[in-house]
Design goal:
8 helices; binds magnesium ion; globular; Undecaprenyl pyrophosphate synthetase; single chain; binds 3-methylbut-3-enyl trihydrogen diphosphate
């Protein structure tokens, strides 16, 4: 693998898939896979911060995941609440700013309160921006963005509606778009994640299951990113002249 002279990724997004299969391989209940997956998030956050990654977005729970068996959904909610409460002090002390992307009104009051606490106590940090996408769907986010624009611009000429009208109203706001998207668990699909923001993201699919995605797996993904040539529509020759 040859590495090219491109800037390190500023923003990495992760589709944390494969918890259920990780547990099944060990004859454990699916929930055990989710618990191990949640523990992996802690390590991953540290490893990204150490590598100077400024933005990390994690897909934790999709709008479609409510369709899972109710005991699994409850277990995921309990883990989310536990994670929000147990990690907040360390995040605050380590320069991590937490934001939750998605429709938080779909969660219990206890979770909504924990989200509000975690977001406000880390709001002053900027070493690592950690976005957790929960009750998140890319299509729903786009619908909300368009609605917000319409409310802010009633009776506006449709010609005024442009790409910025959408991007300015997304929950990712003015954060940089992901440079690299990593999906663990072997599936090669987006599953309704960051549909707008990933227009020019480099996509990395690995068979490694999320609970096994460790520091060396992260380094492999970053190394692969450095072999890419980001052309953004231009020719290879043009890109090489401008670097
Ligand atoms: C990802 O792991 C976690 C969530 C979607 C919440 P899965 O639970 O989808 O694991 P697999 O795909 O069944 O192995
Ligand atoms: C994607 O995983 C969602 C999260 C990781 C939160 P899924 O396991 O829900 O995706 P599909 O259903 O296989 O596409
Ligand atoms: Mg899955």
């Amino acid at each position: 693998m040859t590495t090219k002279d491109i800037a390190p990724p500023q923003h990495i997004a992760f589709i944390m898939d494969g918890n259920g299969r990780w547990a099944k391989d060990r004859l454990l209940p699916r929930v055990a896979g989710h618990a191990k997956g949640a523990a992996q998030v802690r390590q991953l956050t540290k490893n990204c911060a150490r590598r100077g990654i400024g933005y990390v977005t994690l897909y934790a729970f999709s709008t479609e995941n409510w369709a899972r068996p109710s005991d699994e959904v409850s277990a995921l909610m309990s883990l989310f609440l536990k994670y929000l409460s147990s990690e907040v002090d360390e995040m605050r002390d380590n320069g991590v700013r937490l934001r939750v992307l998605g429709d938080t009104s779909g969660f219990s009051q206890a979770i909504q309160d924990a989200i509000a606490r975690a977001e406000s106590s880390t709001a002053h940090n900027d070493r690592l921006h950690l976005n957790v996408a929960a009750n998140y769907g890319g299509r729903a986010e786009l619908v909300h963005a368009v609605r917000k624009w319409m409310v802010a611009n009633p009776n506006a000429d449709p010609a005024l509606f442009d790409e910025a009208s959408i991007s300015n109203h997304l929950q990712t706001g003015n954060m940089p778009a992901p440079d690299l998207l990593v999906r663990t668990g072997g599936e090669c699909r987006i599953s309704n994640f960051l549909l707008w923001q990933t227009a020019y993201t480099e996509l990395y699919f690995t068979d490694t299951l999320w609970p096994a995605f460790d520091a060396s797996a992260l380094d492999q993904a970053i190394l692969w990113y450095h072999t890419r040539e980001r052309r953004f529509g231009k020719t290879s020759e043009q890109v090489q002249v401008s670097t």
